[in-house]
Amino acid sequence: MTGSPVTSAEAPAAAAGAAEAPADLVARLRATFRGGRTRSLDWRAQQLWKLRTLLTEHRADLAAALHADLGKSEAEASGAEVDFPIREIDHTLEHLEEWLRPRPVALSAEGFPAGSTAGTRYDPLGVVLVIAPWNYPAQLLLVPLAGALAAGNTVVAKPSELAPATSALLARLLPEYLDNDAVAVVEGGVPETTALLAQRFDHIFYTGNGTVGRIVMRAAAEHLTPVTLELGGKSPAFVDRDADVTRTAQRLARAKFQNAGQTCVAPDYVLTDPETSKALQIALAEAIEELYGPDPAASPAYGRIVNHRHFDRLTALLDSGRTVTGGAHDRAQKYIAPTVLADVGARSPVMQEEIFGPVLPIVEVADLDEAIAFINDRDKPLALYGFTENEATRRRLATETSSGGLGFGMPMAHLRVPDLPFGGVGESGMGAYHGPHSIATFSHRKAMLDVPLT
Ligand code: NAD
What we know:
Layout: H1 16-19, H2 22-35, H3 41-57, H4 59-70, H5 74-100, E1 103-105, E2 117-124, E3 127-131, H6 139-150, E4 154-158, H7 164-177, E5 183-185, H8 190-197, E6 203-207, H9 210-222, E7 227-230, E8 236-239, H10 245-257, E9 269-272, H11 274-292, H12 308-315, E10 322-325, E11 329-330, E12 335-336, E13 339-342, E14 359-364, H13 368-376, E15 383-387, H14 391-400, E16 405-408, E17 429-430, H15 435-441, E18 443-450
Parallel strand pairs: 3-4, 3-6, 4-5, 6-7, 8-9, 8-15, 9-14, 13-14, 15-16
Antiparallel strand pairs: 1-2, 2-18, 7-17, 10-13, 11-12
Helix pairs in contact: 3-5, 3-6, 4-5, 4-7, 5-6, 6-15, 10-11
The chain binds nicotinamide-adenine-dinucleotide.
The site of nicotinamide-adenine-dinucleotide (NAD) has 28 residues, from helix 8 and helix 9.
């Protein structure tokens, strides 16, 4: 839709957002917000129901778009991009009233007459901008959108241009289901996003990389707009000597190679001692074969790399260590086999940046002390994973490191607990969302004091 000169007379009402100048679009949504209808619980619930209906009625269309963009299997598309937002919506619908209830606080200060009360209430912010990435292009647009609507805001939703089929589909479908005076989809890349970022929003929710995160935050500073930055980074997995290696390898492989490794919370690399490393290498090769068969290129369950730029970046990392399994690649198909690398040095290319692809390096450390030092010498990760039966080890990982989330035993599963905040810290981002945390993110917590006049 972007770039095509559509006059307002030709533009179907449903596509009005895409044809409008950004300033007009934001002004229109702000007028809706000021009109007050987005504040009612009924309106919020209705929008969430409609979003849910879109997801259930277009599961197959979404799966087809996600297959075109990322070679996603139907199971992965359904699970991560349709069922995940549905669960989030259902949980929100069930608890929204309770989450929005004003909270009293104890009035402990002296000097207030009897009958005085104090508390907080959530106010919606106004017009929210949601900028989504390509790797889970539906989930990462729709879950923040649902949260912003549940909190009573109007929303400009900007899908990623690097997932063009999903972007086009959502730009067509969202206006068919949602209140068009409150939600608009703007497709496009850097120029369109830059034009949006010049506007004054009441909150900007960005998911993607730290370089663009800085651009977003600079633009937001002009208007003192608060931001949530959902970024990435290298999420380590520490495997202790006492861990069940077979089970650990199965869970690591499942998490790492989903979406061909293009998941922000995928385990980026493994830290373990030399003995455990040997056993883990064998177990990982077996786990990968269990998941994708002897030839993952022929497995419908295994995805593809999003584009040739990322394919070239990833294949340049394959020489960073000894190949335990995988290594095969095919540029025409944007295919890179699930790959495990051993004997990987801390200074090797694969350890210099977030991998964001199907390459799992194993870095050997002498013990837990060295693992903790290794983690703390680097940027704070979005997630840290531990595989251990040892309570003291768990406690040390929890208290001596900092990461957006910490998961023992099952990587990436913390995302599926909607009452847990999902977000990063330091280089992996700021702010959080999911469930009640989305309401907190997309609202202002207003302090209220009520003192009787009598
Ligand atoms: P991307 O290239 O799709 O970019 C994300 C968004 O930024 C897009 O909508 C894009 O149009 C916009 N954008 C790109 N350049 C811009 C610019 N110069 N100015 C303004 N906007 C611009 O996605 P990506 O950044 O490649 O995504 C991958 C990264 O995102 C990884 O680092 C990954 O870890 C991270 N990520 C984080 C999460 C999370 O929830 N924390 C989820 C997914 C991905």
